[in-house]
Amino acid sequence: MSKASRVYRCTECGYTTSHWLGRCPNCDSWNTLEEIVIEKEAERTKPKGVPAKALSLNEIKARSIERITTDYPETDRLLGGGVVPGSVLLIGGEPGIGKSTLMLQLSESFSRKGLKVLYNCAEESVYQVGLRAGRLNIKGENLRVISEISLDNAIAVYDEIKPDVFIVDSIQAVKDESLPAQPGTVTQIKLCTSKIIDLAKRDNSVAFITGHVTKEGILAGPKTLEHMVDGVFYFEGDRDGAVRLLRSVKNRYGDTNEVAFMEMTSEGLKEISNPSLFFVREGLGSTPGATISVIIEGTRPILVEVQALVTRSVYAVPRRVVQGIDFNRFSFILAVLEKLLQLPLFNKDVFLNIPGGITVKDPAVDLSVALAVISSALEIPLTSELFSFGEIGLTGEIRQVMWHEKRIETAVRLGYTEGIVPSKRREETQGVRGVRTLKEVYDLVKYVRFNVGSL
User: Fold this and answer.
1) 24 in any annotated domain
2) Nearest one of 302, 444, 423 to 370, comparing CA atoms
3) Strands of 16-17's sheet, edge to edge?
4) Is residue 452 part of a domain?
5) What is residue 42's predicted lDDT score, i.e. its pLDDT?
6) Strand order in the sheet with 290-297
7) N or C: at which end does the chain have fewer Cβ atoms within 10 angstroms?
8) CB contact set of 372 (below 8 Å; sequence gap of 6+)
9) What is the predicted pLDDT for the residue at 285?
10) Mean pLDDT of the chain, nearest integer
């Protein structure tokens, strides 16, 4: 007879203890310990199957990997050129952000290539999926849809159909019948994922798993789940907005931290092939407080618009409203402007916005934020051909950032011929000025005249 023991495991860090605790002593998270049942075998069993055959490294290199491409170039680039047979990919994101929509669109793409696809929508009925597919105009003769909470029943259908692509939506909704725990618990998620991985490796098929994220932005369930799969991709963006970012966090068959930009429309997700043209409006430069910044998302330079508005405050405590960058970062930039440039902002309301629904984490946006605030405070519009990037230090120095040359080349190629960038020892490109301190930037802005080419 097998004996079962009950332990408590943290869903955030995987810490295990024999009794329940309100706070995890390892990661200090509250209310994250869940009860799990561990089966102990009375006798040691012999391993089943045939031992694996060892291959020489040269023999492994000689075998080329054929990737399965989709009809979405941005997604293929994010995946490293397509999906690899035998891989298991995890798609995470907030509820309603577009995970199921993406899975349906990819399913249709695979089915058009003659691949058999099995879609297990555990959270919806097959009729609900059919209605959504009708709205998105998705058809697929090779696309089979089931709605099974029991993973064992879904695997039975899988063994009958033998699909090339297997999709489980979502991992928190399915359960293994051999465990008494409810779906979504630590034990269920780990065991179900392990079974899906075994299927993909056994039949050399592709498996997609979707998963919800917590309010902290991590996949609900154990962190070890991310280490079990071959790729982890997060959906980012505001559910109420149109822009979505699919970011590669882990990818055994491609680059990490790559980003694919998408727009949610009534016809589903559409890829944004040129994000710079999407985020930057025409006619920039007619009003003070607007400029262009060159940021890096993944390995690709992207142009975004930075807007600032400085107005007289009618409150005892001036307002600071920020959308698109970290609030603390913005407060830090304003403090440097007030201290080193004596820019009177203590009695002003300052608003900052990066249009398009994108959130910028690249510190190179600092210089553009400072330029926009200075332009609005001094009522001096900046030329529409100006771009900028650079990190600002507490002493007002403009620090170097990664991909310096690549940022300049991208901006110039898109028609922005004048720039303010961190200074380098060598001579800068014509029209691009290198600056070392924020004081130099301030002096430049004071003498800028709209469309006069004073830079």
Assistant:
1) yes
2) 444
3) 16-17, 3-10, 33-40
4) no
5) 47
6) 320-323, 348-353, 300-312, 290-297, 386-388, 418-422, 432-435
7) N
8) 289, 290, 291, 306, 307, 308, 352
9) 62
10) 86
Judgement on whether residues 312 and 268 belong to the same structural domain of the protein: no
Pairing of strands 398-399, 391-392: antiparallel
Q: Do 262 and 286 belong together in one domain?
A: no
Rounded CA separation 148/159 (Å) = 14
The single-letter code of the amino acid at 238 is: D
- Is 379 buried (19+), middle (13-18) or exposed (0-12) by CB count in 10 A? exposed
Same domain (yes/no): 237, 296: no
Residue 97 included in any domain: yes
Quote the number of domains for the chain. 3
Express each pLDDT in 46-96 by its tens digit.
555 567 778 777 776 655 678 899 889 999 999 988 999 999 999 988 888
Whether residues 283 and 256 fall in one domain: no
CA proximity to 171, closest of 200, 153, 191: 191
- Separation between Cα atoms, residue 363 and residue 69, nearest integer Å: 34
CB neighbours of residue 264 within 10 Å: 17
pLDDT at site 221:
53
CATH number at residue 367: 3.30.230.10
Identify the segments of the chain with pLDDT beneath 70: 1-4, 38-50, 60-64, 214-224, 283-286, 425-429, 447-455
Look at residues 170, 159, 244, 163 and name the one whose alpha carbon lies nearest to residue 212. 170
In Å, the largest CA–CA distance within the chain is 87
Sign of CA dihedral 23, 28, 33, 37: negative
Residue 146 to residue 170: CA distance in whole angstroms: 13
Tokens 């603390």 correspond to what residue?
328
Residues in a beta bridge with 379:
none
What pTM value is reported for the model? 0.78
Range of the domain at 20: 3-40
CA 187 to the chain's CA centroid: 27
Q: Is residue 308 part of a domain?
A: yes
* Same structural domain, 294 and 312: yes
Q: Do 320 and 179 lie in a common domain?
A: no
Task: Label each residue of 116-132 as H, E or C.
Answer: CEEEEECCCCHHHHHHH
Give the chain's end-to-end CA distance (angstroms, integer): 83
Half-sphere exposure of 361 (CA within 13 A, CB side): 4
Residue 49 phi, psi (nearest 5): 90, -175
Alpha carbon distance 116, 346 (integer Å):
64
Same domain, 407 and 333: yes
